[in-house]
Amino acid sequence: MPDLWGRVERSDAEVWFLDQATDAPPVVLLHGLAGYAREWTATMDALSPEFRSVAVEQRGHGGSTRRPDDVSREAYVEDVLAVLDDLGRDDVSLVGQSMGGHTAMLVAARAPERVSSLVMVESGLGGGDPTATQAVGDWLASWPVPFADSEDFARFFGGNEHTAAVWAAGLEEQADGLRPAWDAATLTRALAHVHAREHVEEWAEVSCPTLLVLGQHSSVPRRQVETMCALRPGAQVVTVAGTGHDVHLDAPRTWADVLTDFLRDPLRSLG
C-alpha cells in the first residue's frame, strides 16, 4: 500500500492520517494508547479493495502533535470529526481499539448522522480505579530506552511474537537506538480522562449497529460488557480465542474475518 498521508490542522494540534483514498465505503481506524496508524496495515490490506481504510495517528502519537496541551476526550473526538470533514464523508464505519474504541464510541454518540457502524475492540465505558492510570503511566515511563534494535524490544515486550514485532515497528529510529513515538507523561494525562468516569450516557446514545470484539484474556471488565449489552441489546459481542488486549495483532486473520463479516452486513447476526 502506498504512503498516502493526509493532515488536518486543529487550533492546537496537527493530526495525520493514512488514507487508501479510494471510492469504496470508508472505514476509519483508531489505534489505542501508545499505538500508531500503521499498526492497522494488515487490517487495511485485508479490507482492500472492498473498503477504503483510513488510519488516524491520534494526537500525542507518531507524526501528529506529540505533546498537545489538550488531551481531553473532547479533543480526541473533535480530531476524528475534523478528519471526517477533510474526507468529506458522513457514512463511515468507525473501528477503534482500547482507548481508540472509547473515542470511536464518543464520536458515534456525538455525531450519529456521520457514523454508519461502530466496532470497539477491547474497549469499554472507561472509568475505574484511578490507580489504573498511574500503573499504565509508570509502565510506559519504565521502558528501558533506547532499544538497540527490534529484537531487543521484543525481548522486553514478550508475549506474542507478531504483536511484539508490530509494536517494535512503531518505534522511532534515533542516533542512539529505537525510542517510542510518544511521550509517557502526555499519554498518562490522556488516559486519565478515559478513567475519569464511565461514559454510560454516551454509550446509550449510540444508535448505529455496534460490534464489541473481546480477547479471550480481555482487559475489559465483564461487568461493563454486561452493562453495555443490557443498555443496548442489539450490540453484538464476539470473543476471539487465544488473544489478549491486542486482538487485531494477536490474531490478525481471525480479526480481519470478523471485521469484514460485520462491515458487509452490520445488521446480520455473527452468531
Task: Provide a descriptive summary of the structure in words.
Residues 25-252 form the AB hydrolase-1 domain. GO terms for molecular function: hydrolase activity. This protein is 39% helix and 19% strand. Helix 2 (73-87) packs across helix 3 and helix 4 (131-141) packs antiparallel against helix 7 (184-195). The protein is built from eleven helices and ten strands. It is of the alpha/beta class. The chain has an eight-stranded mixed beta sheet, with helices on both faces. The longest helix has 15 residues, at 73-87. The model has no long low-confidence stretch (mean pLDDT 96).
Structural class: alpha/beta
Q: What does the radius of gyration come to? A: 17 Å
Taken in chain order, the helices and strands follow as: EEEHEHEHEHHHEEHHEHEHH
Helical coverage, percent range: 25-40%
Per the principal axes of the C-alpha atoms, what is the gross shape?
A: globular
Number of helices: 11
The mean pLDDT is: 96
Spatial strand arrangement across the major sheet: 1-2-4-3-5-6-9-10
Distance linking N and C termini: 33 Å
Biggest sheet statistics:
8 strands, mixed
Low-confidence stretches: none
Task: Kindly state the number of beta strands.
Answer: 10
Instruction: State which percent range the strand residues make up.
Output: 15-25%
